[in-house]
C-alpha cells in the first residue's frame, strides 16, 4: 500500500498534483494546531482555512475510496519539531511494511523541514511539488524527489559509545551525575566512561551540564533519534 | 572562524541569529529577486550566491562547490528560502554533521543533526561513482549510462558488486531493460509451432543494465568531486 504524509496549510495545489502523480491509497494530512488561548485573528483564520482544506481533500479522496487521516500538531512552539517527529514516527510505526512517502511542500517552513528530518531518520521517501506557475516550466516534471541521506549510525559509532547511549536511554535519557553511568560490568570507573561521554557530547548526541560540583548528562534530540536506529 | 550559512528571503532571521550569537562571516544563497536586498547584508569577507530556489539540482551543485571550500565552524540556517532550498541545506547539514537552526519568532530551534560526517563508501565504490558522475556530467544527470559504456572493457562481474553497494547506499538507481534484436533465419529454415515460435525470424531479448544518479548521489558527488 502507498501511504503519503503531507503537512498542509493555506495552499493545497501540491496535494492535488501528488494525487494525480502517485497512486495514493492512504493519506495523512498534518496541520498546525491552534495554540490554546490564541487571540491573534490571523492565526485563527489560518487554522480554520487549513481545517477547511483538509475537509476539501477528504471529500475529494472519498470519491476514490482513499482513507484520509487528519492529525494536528503544534507548529509554533519550541518543541514543535519534536512533536512533529513523534507524530511521523507513530504513523511510520503504524504503517510498517507499506511504501511511505512524505510530501514536504506544504505547511510552515518548520513543518517542511521537520517532515524532511523525519524522512531521514525513519527512512521514507521525500518529495517536493514544484509550483509550475511560479518558478518552473510546464514541460518539466513537477515532482522533485529529495536527497535522503541513508543515515546509519550503527557503523559510525564504536560499540562503547553505543553502549553509553543505550545506558543513558535506559536511565530515562538523563543522569544527574556522570558516576550514575558507572556500572559493575562495562564501565567500572569514571575514568573509563568519561572519554566516551565527552566524545558523544562533541557529536551532539549528549549534553553535559555543570551543576555545582557535578555534571549531569542528558540525551539530545539527535541522540534520541540516533538511538532509534541503534535499537 | 564561524560562518553562518543561510538561504535569503528577507534577512530577518539572519538579523535575529546575529543578535543571539556572533558570526565572523556570512554565506548567503539568494534568488535573483532578492539579490539587491541580500547585498545589503554582505560585508567584506562574506559571500552571496544567486541560485534558483526551485531548481534543486542547480542548488545542490552550488552547495557542492561552496561548502567544501569553507574552513571553519559552520552554522546552517534553514528558515529562509523555499522548502526546497531548506531540503538542499538540510541534506548538506546531515552529510557534514553541521549545526542547523530554524528561527521561529524569537526562538531558535536546533535541528537534531549529529556531528558525524556520513562517509559511507568503500574506496572502490567511490571510484565507480566518480566515473558515473564524470560520464553524466557531460550529458545530463537525469539520463542513464549503461554498464557497457561504463565498464570500458572490464568484466561486468567486477562492476556489479561496487554498483550494487552504491545502489544500497541510495546513490544510484540500477535499471534493467530488455533490448529486442530481430534475427532473420537462413532462407531454408523456419521455426515450427513445436519450437514455440513460428516464422522466419526470431527476436532475441538482451538484458541491458544501466545506472543513473539519485538526488542523493548528485549531492554526494557535488561534495566529493
Summarize the structure.
The complex is a heterodimer of chains A (231) and B (225). With 231 residues, chain A is of the alpha/beta class. Chain A has helices at residues 13-21, 41-62, 80-94, 109-121, 153-156, 159-170, 190-202, 221-230; strands spanning 2-7, 26-33, 67-74, 99-103, 125-129, 143-145, 174-175, 206-211, 214-219.
Summarize the topology:
The complex is a heterodimer of chains A (231) and B (225).
Chain A lengths: L1 E6 L5 H9 L4 E8 L7 H22 L4 E8 L5 H15 L4 E5 L5 H13 L3 E5 L13 E3 L7 H4 L2 H12 L3 E2 L14 H13 L3 E6 L2 E6 L1 H10 L1
Parallel strand pairs in A: 1-2, 1-4, 2-3, 4-5
Antiparallel strand pairs in A: 5-6, 7-9, 8-9
Chain B lengths: L1 E7 L3 H9 L4 E6 L4 H5 L7 E4 L5 H11 L6 E5 L5 H14 L2 E6 L2 E4 L12 H16 L6 E2 H5 L4 H13 L3 E13 L16 E13 L1 H10 L1
Parallel strand pairs in B: 1-2, 1-4, 2-3, 4-5
Antiparallel strand pairs in B: 5-6, 7-9, 8-9
Helix pairs in contact in B: 3-4, 3-8, 5-7
Identify low-pLDDT runs of chain A: 135-140
Instruction: Give the largest interface.
Output: A-B, 44 and 40 residues
| Average pLDDT figure of chain B | 81
Order of H and E elements of chain A? EHEHEHEHEEHHEHEEH
Strand content of chain B: 25-35%
How many strands of chain A?
9
Broad shape of chain B: elongated
Structural class by secondary-structure content of chain B: alpha/beta
Oligomerization status of the protein chains: heterodimer
Shape of chain A: elongated
Biggest sheet details of chain B: 6 strands, mixed
Arrangement of strands in the largest sheet of chain A? 3-2-1-4-5-6
Helix percent of chain B reads 25-40%
Cross-sheet strand order for the largest sheet of chain B: 3-2-1-4-5-6
Alpha-carbon Rg of chain B, integer? 25 Å
Number of helices of chain B: 8
From the N-terminal CA to the C-terminal CA of chain B, the straight-line distance is: 25 Å
Beta-strand residue fraction of chain A: 15-25%
Amino acid at each position: 500500500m502507498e501511504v503519503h504524509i503531507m503537512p498542509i496549510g493555506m495552499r493545497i495545489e501540491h496535494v492535488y498534483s501528488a494525487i494525480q502523480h502517485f497512486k495514493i491509497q492512504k493519506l495523512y494530512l498534518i496541520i498546525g494546531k491552534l495554540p490554546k488561548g490564541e487571540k491573534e485573528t490571523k492565526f485563527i483564520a489560518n487554522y480554520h482555512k487549513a481545517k477547511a482544506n483538509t475537509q476539501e481533500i477528504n471529500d475529494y479522496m472519498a470519491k476514490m475510496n482513499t482513507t484520509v487521516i487528519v492529525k494536528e500538531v503544534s507548529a509554533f512552539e519550541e518543541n514543535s519539531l519534536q512533536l512533529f517527529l513523534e507524530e511521523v514516527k507513530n504513523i511510520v510505526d503504524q504503517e510498517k511494511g507499506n511504501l511511505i512517502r512524505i510530501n514536504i511542500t506544504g505547511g510552515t517552513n518548520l513543518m517542511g523541514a521537520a517532515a524532511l528530518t523525519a524522512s531521514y531518520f525513519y527512512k521514507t521517501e521525500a518529495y517536493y511539488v514544484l509550483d509550475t506557475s511560479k518558478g518552473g516550466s510546464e514541460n518539466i516534471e513537477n515532482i522533485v524527489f529529495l536527497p535522503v541521506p541513508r543515515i546509519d549510525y550503527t557503523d559510525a559509532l564504536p560499540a562503547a559509545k553505543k553502549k553509553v547511549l543505550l545506558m543513558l536511554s535506559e536511565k530515562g535519557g538523563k543522569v544527574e551525575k556522570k558516576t550514575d553511568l558507572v556500572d559493575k560490568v562495562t564501565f567500572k570507573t569514571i575514568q573509563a566512561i568519561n572519554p566516551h561521554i565527552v566524545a558523544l557530547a562533541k557529536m551532539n548526541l549528549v549534553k553535559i551540564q555543570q551543576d555545582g560540583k557535578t555534571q549531569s548528562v542528558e540525551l539530545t534530540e539527535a541522540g534520541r533519534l540516533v538511538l532509534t536506529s541503534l535499537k | 572562524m564561524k560562518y553562518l550559512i543561510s538561504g535569503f528571503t528577507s534577512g530577518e532571521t539572519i538579523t535575529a541569529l546575529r543578535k543571539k550569537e556572533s558570526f565572523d562571516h556570512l554565506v548567503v544563497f539568494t534568488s535573483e529577486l532578492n539579490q539587491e536586498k541580500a547585498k545589503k547584508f554582505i560585508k567584506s569577507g562574506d559571500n552571496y550566491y544567486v541560485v534558483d530556489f526551485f531548481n534543486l539540482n542547480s542548488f545542490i551543485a552550488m552547495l557542492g562547490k561552496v561548502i567544501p571550500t569553507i574552513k571553519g565552524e559552520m552554522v546552517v540556517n534553514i528558515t529562509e528560502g523555499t522548502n526546497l532550498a531548506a531540503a538542499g541545506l538540510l541534506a548538506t547539514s546531515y552529510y557534514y554533521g553541521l549545526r542547523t537552526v530554524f528561527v521561529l519568532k524569537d526562538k531558535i530551534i536546533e535541528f537534531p543533526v549529529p556531528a558525524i560526517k556520513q562517509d559511507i563508501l568503500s574506496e572502490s565504490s567511490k571510484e565507480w561513482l566518480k566515473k558515473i558522475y564524470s560520464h553524466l556530467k557531460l550529458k545530463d544527470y537525469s539520463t542513464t549510462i549503461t554498464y557497457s559504456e561504463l565498464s570500458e572493457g572490464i568484466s561486468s562481474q567486477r562492476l556489479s558488486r561496487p554498483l550494487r553497494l552504491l545502489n544500497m547506499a541510495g546513490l544510484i538507481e540500477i535499471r534493467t531493460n530488455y533490448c529486442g534484436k530481430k534475427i532473420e533465419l537462413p532462407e531454408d529454415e523456419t521455426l515450427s509451432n513445436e519450437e514455440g515460435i513460428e516464422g522466419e525470424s526470431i527476436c532475441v531479448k538482451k538484458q541491458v543494465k544501466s545506472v543513473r544518479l539519485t538526488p542523493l548521489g548528485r549531492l554526494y558527488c557535488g561534495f566529493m568531486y
